[in-house]
Amino acid sequence: MHPNVRALSRGLAILSELNVGGPSSAQTLARKTGINRTTAYRLLHTMIEDGFVTFDEPSGEFSSTPQVRQLSDGLSARDAMSQAALPAMFALMKEVSWPSDFAVFDSGSVIIRETTHPYSPFSVHRAMIGRRRPFLRSSLGRAILAAARPKVRKTMLEITAASGNADAALAEDQAAIYGLLEQFNRDGFAWSVGETEKNISAIALPIVGSSGVIGSMNIIFFSTTMAPQKAAGRYLRNLQKAVASVEAELKRPTKR
Question: Model's pTM, two decimal places?
Answer without folding.
Answer: 0.71
